[in-house]
Amino acid sequence: MASLSEHPTVQAFQARQPHERPPTSVDQHWLRNLCLESGADDVGFVEIERPELENERSHILAALPHTRTLISLVRRMNRENIRTPARSVANVEFHHSSHDLEDVARKIVAALEQKNIRAICPAVGFPQEMDRYPGRIWVVAHKPVAVAAGMGRMGIHRNVIHPRFGNFILLETILMEATIDSYSQPIDYNPCLECKLCVAACPVGAIGSDGHFDFSACMTHNYREFMGGFTDWVEKVADSKDAAEYREKVTPAESASMWQSLSFKANYKAAYCMAVCPAGEDVIGPFLENRKTYLQDVVKPLQNKEEIIYVTPGSDAEEHVKRRFPHKTIRHAHNGLRTPSIHSFLNGLPLVFQREKAADMDVAYHFTFTGQEKQEATIIIRHKTLLIQKGLTGEANLSIKVDSATWLKILNKKQNIILAILRRKLQLRGSPQLLQAFQRCFAT
């Protein structure tokens, strides 16, 4: 075999004079023009060392090890397509806009590659790293990058609001190895008007007027045909002994909707928080001119729509629908948030916490997990708040000592809790009623 130096490819590379070296820094104006000419509606730049990205840094570097700059891209969506009660129209807008933005990002990455600058563009939304589910499935969180890059601020509905385009935008992030000569800074005000229209429109009450967000309520309904909702549907199919039993669990319209999601990309069931938001210089006009008309034309059609609302049984969301939207049909569903480890159990508690169920509680729990995952934790539920601490701190109203594998089986409905107590796999010191109260505070 000839030596490597005699290979034609190596000789062609060596013949280049001078050798092409990747630039260590890029002109900000050139890069900005490249992004806008490629189709972005706005763009900002953040250095990897920015303190706001501390929680993202390790994930970013795992995807592109020598990342130095993050490029935050904004793509504007057509507002009326998002606002209409015809959610098929809204979903087509979401999906087409995400495809457009991914094409924009690919053009930019290709242009950077021509300059010998390494860069990657993770997905705008889906697909994501589903082998990690139900943990962190995204490569980079676009929202904190966008905020750090001056592309807007988070509203109480947990959407980024651009100062001009409002929340009718999609976000993308490009990871780039080169630095640039000037970086963007966050904007100095929040475009959110705190009008609370998102609070009024959300069919499951996921957005509290005080800024609280019920993650599980949003995921159970809005993401019914994604991830956990899809696996819940699959289990309904698997658990049905025949077609007749399946039809008792799932209506023809629901089956057809799932087919539509599988064929034409998964459909969001609501996203009403985005639809009704009047913030943004290009958006706010009709709201300022005549708020009554804006409410009648934009908010009321979504509130009055007769539709199925998916909730976990006994959840705050279920009570919200009964109280605020009695004309909407409640369907019980599992949110798909399975618990594979004690670590994920403790980290996931804030996501499924039902604060209305905890309104009258003031209870401290000591958990001692034995067996494969040894761990101690103190969980305090006090007047609609949840506090989780490592170790056993203070006095407990109820102490729970349990084999970790047994606890995970109980959470995932594979183990009867009474049987676990009888077999002393689970030991209580305190009133068993407090354990029942604990379970009611979390949507499963």
From TrEMBL:
Residues 1-25 are annotated as: Disordered. It comes from Dictyobacter formicarum. Residues 183-212 form the 4Fe-4S ferredoxin-type domain. The keyword Amino-acid biosynthesis does not apply. Pfam families: Fer4, SCP2. Keywords: Iron, Iron-sulfur, Metal-binding. This is 4Fe-4S ferredoxin. Residues 1-14 have a biased composition (Polar residues).
